[in-house]
Specification:
Distance between the termini: 35 Å
Structural class: mainly beta
Radius of gyration: 23 Å
Helix content: under 10%
Strand content: 35-45%
Order of helices and strands: EEEEEEEEEEEEEHEEEEEEH
Number of strands: 19
Largest sheet: 9 strands, mixed
Length: 286
């Protein structure tokens, strides 16, 4: 576990930010068996490139809820000569059958670079002539990871009654995963009876809302201590999380801030543990 410094102070109430949304996978109207005039049917069977660290003392990264076949995949097509996004793009799939996605792509006489991505609704994107880049200022809510393929180059897109199968397209992870662990001590009641809300922020980013402690996953560590954890994602390198702040709202509407230094590292999973002592919090009421 990374080393850190932390302390606790009382602070004033913080307004909750708007909830982030993400594009849930929905089955679209089935694509036609034969393409419409001027379009070509592309079929894609994507997979996620998940880099999971299972070294000693580490817990494998949990799934962020991205399930192939149940989430929308967006197709981006840029003209490779003019470096501009084709009209109407990005577009979602026309059809999902199992883990196979079908896209109706218009013909194009000049070279193109094609990308596929699973992404939240609130991110921005840009193209540098070779790759597709994303940015977003806030912490991404749970199940809001971002995945994108490398460029798929075509000298042109020409009509084909049989369509074009791209086979297995690898969607690479474009986010870092952070895990908050809460260790409640000396609580005379269940922590969720006393802690009414949890939110967190960093140097230049905020979590989109205050969440209930029941949103955390209870688990038992190697010392048989019950702790609570919650995972969220951020786009790298857009968001700095050097100074992580955790806010706990109590049943009496007091808000307490815990602060921890997050040291830079190369791990895909950043884990931060906060010890929440009921006696220390309760001392503010004496």
């Amino acid at each position: 576990m990374k080393s850190f410094a932390k302390y606790i102070v009382a602070v004033t109430a913080i307004p909750a930010a708007a909830l982030l949304s993400f594009s849930c996978g929905k089955f679209q109207e089935p694509a036609a068996e034969t393409p419409e005039e001027g379009t070509v049917l592309f079929t894609v069977t994507p997979s996620l490139d998940m880099e999971v660290d299972v070294s000693e003392g580490r817990i494998p990264v949990k799934s962020d809820g991205t399930v192939i076949g149940q989430r929308d995949i967006w197709c981006f097509i840029y003209d490779a000569d003019g470096d501009y996004l084709l009209d109407g793009f990005p577009v979602r799939q026309n059809e999902i059958i199992g883990s196979t996605y079908t896209f109706a792509i218009p013909t194009h006489s000049s070279p193109v670079n094609m990308f596929f991505a699973v992404m939240p609704d609130n991110v921005s994107y840009s193209y540098d002539g070779y790759s597709l880049n994303f940015s977003g200022g806030d912490i991404l809510g749970e199940n809001n990871g971002l995945w994108c393929s490398d460029s798929q180059y075509f000298s042109s897109i020409e009509s084909s009654e049989d369509g074009i199968s791209l086979g297995n397209i690898i969607l690479e992870q474009r986010h870092d995963t952070f895990e908050i662990i809460l260790d409640f001590t000396n609580f005379p009641m269940s922590p969720d009876e006393f802690i009414s809300g949890v939110s967190f922020a960093a140097d230049d980013a905020h979590y989109p809302s205050s969440i209930n402690l029941l949103s955390f996953e209870a688990f038992t560590d190697e010392d048989y201590t019950v702790k609570y954890r919650y995972s969220f994602n951020v786009l790298y390198p857009e968001v700095s999380l050097y100074n992580m702040r955790l806010y706990l709202t109590t049943a009496r509407d007091d808000i307490f801030k815990y602060e921890q230094i997050v040291y830079p590292g190369n791990d895909d999973l950043y884990r931060m543990e906060f010890e929440v002592d009921y006696n220390r919090i309760n001392g503010y009421y004496d």
